[in-house]
Amino acid sequence: MIVIGTKVVQSYFAKIAGHRGIKAARSQYEVWLEIVGRAQWRNPEDVKASYPKVSILKAGRVVFNIKGNDFRLVSAVQYRAGVSAIRFFGTHAEYDKVDAETV
What we know:
By secondary structure, the protein is α+β, with helices and mostly antiparallel strands. It has a single domain, classed as YaeB-like fold. It is about 35% helix and about 25% strand. The chain is built from 4 helices and 5 strands; from the N terminus they run βαααββββα. The protein has helices spanning about 5-15, 20-40, 45-50, 90-95, and strands at about 1-5, 55, 60-65, 70-80, 85-90. A 5-stranded mixed sheet has the order 1-5-4-3-2. β3 (about 60-65) and β4 form a beta hairpin.
């Protein structure tokens, strides 16, 4: 998959630099980037095979847990194009304040 929208996450990390758990979150995000960058997902079932605890939503939205569910990453996946567009990254509490299907 081609991953776009990485600036969403980088901006978030810059904003909260120095907070507890950020180093681990960044490390796990980088692993996520590597896995998704090599993935060839054709449908939601392929995503589930890579990430069994992922949440598949409407409109191609997929919610990934980062750092043991401390952070959530919402991506809009376009399977035919092979693109995963990061739409949101934040804490679980911040995630609860957005509509993941439209963000």
